[in-house]
Amino acid sequence: MKSGSNLEGILESGQFAVTAEAGPPKGTSAKVIQRKGELLKLCCDALNVTDNQTAIVRMSSISGCVLLKEQGVEPVLQMVVRDRNRLALQSDLLGAAALGIRNVLCLSGDHQRFGNHATAKGVYDIDSIQFLQMVKTMRDEHQFLNGEEISGDVPFFIGAAANPFADPFEFRVTRLAKKANAGADFIQTQGIFDMPKFIEWMKMIKDRGLDERTHILAGLIPIKSVGMARYMRNNVSGLSVPKEIVDRMADAKEPKEEGVNICLETIEQLKEVDGVHGIHIMAVAWEDIVPRIVEEAGLMPRPVV
Amino acid sequence: MITLEQKKLDEILDMTKRCKRLLVMGCETCAAMSFAGGQRQVAELASAIRIAKKTSGDEGEVLEETIARQCEPEFVDLSGDKVSECDAVLSLACGAGVQLLAERFPDKIVLPGCNTTFLGVTEELGVWSERCAGCGNCILDKTAGLCPIARCAKQLLNGPCGGSMNGKCEISKDVDCVWQLIIDRLKRLNRLEMLEEIFPVKDWSPAGHGGPRKMVREDVKS
Q1: Taking Cα atoms as reference points, which of A209, A117, A99 lies closest to residue A156?
Q2: DSSP 3-state assignment of A143?
Q3: Distance set, CA A183 to CA A101, A129, A163, B84 (Å)
């Protein structure tokens, strides 16, 4: 075991993993995170704590992770290279390791222009792939980026993101290969609505044998309303929401129910896609629905490893 | 070229309102190419300031001068006589020109009439775009002659982020994704495999993060 995390145990034993997102508050309330932890504890193998998601300042990801750990919930520490240079990243990783955090997700981060401090200087000292490589070297070689020795273990299960729907499509597979080469033990993808495109991407991943080198967790975004579907279709770069999904939401008498149905159908299809090792549910501002989705998808109870 | 854009007249009038004898100084190189600070723009701006001063009842004279390059001491020094007649110089050069004037004329107030925008190219008449970030360590051999440091909003070195869509950058549909352009070009050149390698962490110190930069060439030094 590289990290001894629950998520690693489940994936390495070949079981289908379930993760979800628990975003920290735009304030100091521990309860916000604790409530999400309590809610999602039994239906997920680990919870991602986002890092100033969409470039909006929130409680730090590390603090959120610690709050979850105190409740017996395993966190995935999300870290973006937008806000920290190589020194800050490494120092936070040491702290995270010391605090018992065992999963880390290495990301570029949404551009600061989208956030609530749009004039901030983006750091981007290193990119997400270099970041993965750095964490792997810290873990496996006990070395900082400059080659100096680290005292103590840095046991992280290392994750990365992948977006099968961004362009240029063919390069997405190369980029995933680079992430696997750089050290990604697991991948959490962008939310999937366009199943044919995802299947095509997975086929290319399989053709290169990448599904055997990294665990791919397919991303899901439960849709609450037709407005949300339209917004994601028209305004979110890197998301592919087919018109049929928007139409289904528009025609539905009970849009939330339809959103759950779409999500459950997607999970059923994903279970059949060769090389998919789990799902990652990003129910932003709709965490309450996650236990029901996991239950109705037949993924309960969660395995104990 | 270095691209420039003349400041708004209100801002220029505000910074020059106390000047009794103002010299508007143009630069015939990049500033002229940008239509921001060549001889013609100097004449136009000088008249606008004169009219404004007259209208507001302010006293004062506005003189004009344009030199070949405000970034070279030899040229700057040639304007010494003209500068000595004035109490302030409004430079229509880039930030480098403004600073060299300030350095060569320590007793004069030197004011910037332009904003220095970027290192770029003329796309068509009246349209310029950024090409180079002056990072001090060129990587264009590895990126098909297109620079992700100057042209990727995140300065990513290992390919496009998840926000690249239809050839456009996530920050705006009006911005090309340079990684899309790089990949298209490498595909055309049959060299796409170049991108398989992980691009190593970049040293940003020659890019200015290591402090103010200076270049010394012993072989050409006098």
Answers
A1: A99
A2: strand
A3: 18, 9, 17, 65
Nearest by CB: A166 against B155, B165, B196:
B165
pLDDT above 70: percentage of residues in chain B: 100
Order of strands, sheet of B114-124, starting from the edge strand that comes earlier in the sequence: B2-6, B114-124, B127-132
- Alpha-carbon gap, residue B153 to A235, rounded angstroms: 18
Give residue B150's pLDDT.
Answer: 97
Amino acid in position B42: V
Contacts of B201 in chain A (CB under 8 A): 86, 126, 130, 134, 145
Q: Report the sign of the C-alpha dihedral through residues A186, A187, A188, A191, in that order.
A: negative
Q: Is the pLDDT of residue B222 over 90?
A: no
Its sign, for the CA torsion A170, A172, A174, A177, is negative
A6-296: CATH number: 3.20.20.220
Q: How far is A254 from chain B (nearest CA, A)?
A: 32
Yes or no: say if A129 and A182 are a contact pair by the CB < 8 Å rule. yes
Residues A128 and A107 sit within 8 Å (Cβ to Cβ): yes
Domain range summary for chain B, segments of one domain joined by + = 2-118, 134-207
Residue A228, phi-psi category: left (phi > 0), alpha (psi -120 to 50), beta (remainder): alpha
Per-residue pLDDT of chain A (305 residues; tens, 9 = 90+): 999 999 999 999 999 999 999 999 999 999 999 999 999 999 999 999 999 999 999 999 999 999 999 999 999 999 999 999 999 999 999 999 999 999 999 999 999 988 999 989 899 999 999 999 999 999 999 999 999 999 999 999 999 999 999 999 999 999 999 999 999 999 999 999 999 999 999 999 999 999 999 999 999 999 999 999 999 999 988 899 999 999 999 999 999 999 999 999 999 999 999 999 999 999 998 999 999 999 999 999 999 99
For domain B2-118, which CATH number applies: 2.30.29, 3.30.70, 1.25.40, 3.40.50?
3.40.50
Minimal C-alpha gap between A233 and chain B (Å): 12
* Residue of B167, B177, B198 with shortest CB distance to A133: B198
Residues of B in contact with A82 (CB under 8 A): 154
Q: Which of B164, B192, B204, B209 to mutate to test the interface with A (most CBs of A within 10 A)?
A: B164
CA-CA-CA-CA dihedral for A5, A11, A13, A17, to nearest 10? 100
Residue from B217, B36, B212 nearest B114 by CA? B36
Kindly tell me if the per-residue pLDDT of B59 is higher than 90: no
- The amino acid present at A199, given as its one-letter code, is I
Domain ranges of chain A: 6-296
Please judge whether B155 and A124 are an interchain contact, meaning their C-beta atoms are less than 8 angstroms apart: yes
Contact call for residues A218 and A280 (beta carbons, < 8 A): yes
